[in-house]
User: Fold this.
Amino acid sequence: MPELPEVETVRRTLEELIVGKKIAKVKMTYPKIIKEPKDTSEFSLNLVDEVVEMIGRKGKFLIIYTTNYALVSHLRMEGKFLVSKKDEEFDKHTHIFFEFEDGFELRYRDVRKFGTMHLYLKGTEFDKAPLVTVGVEANTESFKADELYNKLRKITRPIKSVLLDQTIVSGLGNIYVDEVLFRAKIHPSSSASKLTLEEIERIVNASKEVLNIAIEKGGTTIRSYLNAQGKIGAFQEDLLVYGKSGEPCFYCQREIQKTRVAGRGTSFCITCQELKK
Assistant:
């Protein structure tokens, strides 16, 4: 699943490719991707003659701003945006087409069809689902250790589960949570309520460090992630623990273990990441 660095990379790429373009037509082969408005013909008609003004992002959500609207898109497991000439071939997994006046198209391709799109009047997008419940972004100055510490006082869930909860902190997915907790030397199964302020500070600092490096590297290519220009990310070269099960720990050389936490495959070092129950 594309996480914050991958979505940020897509945002930056689309900003280069489609800002200033005018939408002439919207076509779709799988309307269920459109969640708002319920009438998908309204979705299409509203966007005709709209000009793409900027590309935004909140957590893992991409926001395409046009003259009057905000298109909120979540890529989920396999969603991808591609920019192509409208006469170029496409496969059966390409479901939404935004045709521009200049002969190019923004195409949304999604093998599993799990992605979503919501269209709202610009300025109302943060007051409605899905953005209204999205927490503070994990790579920003607004993500503060003392505020997170206070939130976690009554949460007994494993810290990995908490960091994956996009209503508490947004932008961290399975890959980056493993990397953050490894660098912070916190066991992923540790009870969130038992962590000290100093440990929370390590998590916050590691979150910003990992995500910002990953953004610079264009994200992590695991399985099928590509950006809107078909290019791969490079942060996988910097991974210290994710996918390293059976290999020696970067810090102590003990073998990296793999378990399941919050239903997700989880890599960690039993020596460097002490378990707090």
